[in-house]
Specification:
The protein is mainly α. The protein has seven helices and no strands. Helix 1 runs parallel beside helix 4, helix 4 runs antiparallel to helix 5 and helix 6 crosses helix 7.
Length: 168
C-alpha cells in the first residue's frame, strides 16, 4: 500500500510534469500558529508513514479488513485523480476542473482517506490518533495556502472558494 502511495505521489506526478513536483512541495508563507503546525504536520506525516510500514495488517475480523482495504484504495484513487489534475495547471493558475471541482484540497483529502484506511487495516488506535494530529496540522497548512492563493489570485480565488468546498 505504501509503495502505491509513493508511486502515485512522486513517480506519477514527476512523469506528468517535473514542475508539478516542485509546486506540490511548496508551502505557502506561514504565520503565527501555522509555523508550529508545519512542524507537527511534517513530524506526524513521517511517523504515520513509518508506522504504516511497520504495523502489521490485521486480517480478522474480515469485514474490518475489507473496510480498511476499500477506504485505503479509495484514498489512492483520489490521490491519482488529484495528481493528474494538479499536473495540468490552469492558465490563470487556479485549477477548477477534474477533482478540483469538488474539493479545493483533494491531495490533503486523499492523504487523510488513505491514512484512515491504513489505520483501519492495522486496527491501530495509535495510527488513528496520529492521523487526527496530522489532519489538524494539515488544516493550518491549508489555511496558509488559502491566504496565499487569495493574495496571489485575488477575486478569482475568492469566487472559487465560494463555489468549491475546502474538503468535500
Amino acid at each position: 500500500m505504501l509503495a502505491a502511495f509513493f508511486f502515485i505521489r512522486f513517480w506519477v506526478l514527476a512523469q506528468l510534469d517535473q514542475e508539478a513536483v516542485k509546486r506540490a512541495a511548496y508551502f505557502a508563507p506561514l504565520q503565527g500558529v501555522e509555523k508550529g503546525a508545519y512542524w507537527v504536520y511534517q513530524l506526524s506525516n513521517t511517523v504515520l508513514l513509518v508506522c504504516i510500514g511497520v504495523f502489521p495488517l490485521r486480517w480478522l475480523p474480515l469485514w474490518i479488513f475489507c473496510t480498511g482495504l476499500f477506504v485505503s484504495l479509495a484514498g489512492l484513487a483520489m490521490l491519482l485523480w488529484a495528481v493528474f489534475s494538479f499536473a495540468a495547471p490552469a492558465e490563470n493558475g487556479i485549477r477548477q476542473t477534474g477533482i478540483y471541482r469538488l474539493s479545493r484540497n483533494p491531495m490533503y483529502l486523499a492523504y487523510f482517506i488513505f491514512f484512515l484506511g491504513c489505520a483501519i487495516l492495522a486496527q491501530s488506535l495509535i495510527l488513528l490518533i496520529l492521523l487526527l494530529v496530522f489532519q489538524i496540522a494539515s488544516h493550518f497548512i491549508i489555511l496558509s495556502e488559502e491566504r496565499w492563493c487569495t493574495e496571489k489570485f485575488g477575486e478569482a480565488y475568492r469566487q472559487y472558494m465560494k463555489k468549491v468546498r475546502r474538503y468535500l
